[in-house]
Please model this.
Amino acid sequence: MTSQPPPDPAGPPPERPKAVHRPVLLDEVVDWLAPREGSVLVDGTAGAGGHTAALARRVGPTGRVVGFDRDPAMLQLARAATEGLPVDLVHAPYSSMREGLESLGIAPGTIDGVVLDLGLSSDQLAWRDRGFSFGTDGPLDMRFDPTSDRPTAADLLAEMSAEDLANAIYEYGEERLSRRIARKIVETRDAGPVTTTAQLADLVRRCYPPKQRHGPIDPATRVFQALRILVNDELAHLDAILAELPEILAPGGRAAIISFHSLEDRRVKWAFRNDDRLSVLTKKPVTATAEETAVNPRARSAKLRVAERWSNQEPIPTPTSPRP
Ligand SMILES: C[S@@+](CC[C@H](N)C(=O)[O-])C[C@H]1O[C@@H](n2cnc3c(N)ncnc32)[C@H](O)[C@@H]1O
Model:
């Protein structure tokens, strides 16, 4: 079913730019997870290793941070960023966290903190051969794990019915012109396959009246988000880990989850509120300061929610006021 050969699983080819990703809400995650000497923590989305490294520096030689990622190229960046630190990196989705930890001899129910920084990293966006960006031209791949045999975005665009495409674009992209865009994709593919990011972005833009094509948000944004979520089955992974987190955390252990759109944030909020093994520590989501968004515009839409596994011991002090 997959139409493109997977890239070299050994990682990014040398012409790729160095890590460009800035970890979002880094100080806030560290403050809320409050790692101590000897803590065992998990970063479910290690990426370029920003959060992993910051946490690992605080757990000392007796502690440990386990980082998961679906993307072998990102794990290579994480490996470089965490050299010399007590970090284990695992190539697996965070939804297999329990098995991944067990393979390292770490029992469920013993983890002091879990961080998830959802979505994709600026590095993946910058690598045009990965097909995540509508700003550059590349093959429509969009798999977080290009070594997997899952269908690429191009495969899905070639195979799905207009109705299924419209539903996915509406549901995962919250795109009001989903039907028009799906029809246009089907019309275009009847004349020849849609295989590149530029082709798809152009097709989507042409579904909008000329005046609306050049607003502050590119009309292709929502369709690219929808396809990425679909290709990687992102919400199913999130639902799976949300159901399992309370069993992975030690009593008093915390989960800190950063989401970037309402489909993710709603799930996190609901799961934290409705599991009686957890207590919610952030009544409202923590957002980035003006200083952070000035240097990292990606932080603008970030929402951090934190919950703690019930324990009858003295709670660890939590940050009570926003950082200055
Ligand atoms: C926003 S980046 C994380 C950046 C990281 N916190 C840092 O400081 O560099 C999200 C990462 O999660 C990975 N990812 C997405 N879905 C995943 C999943 N279900 N399991 C594991 N990793 C996933 C992506 O490949 C990407 O590297």
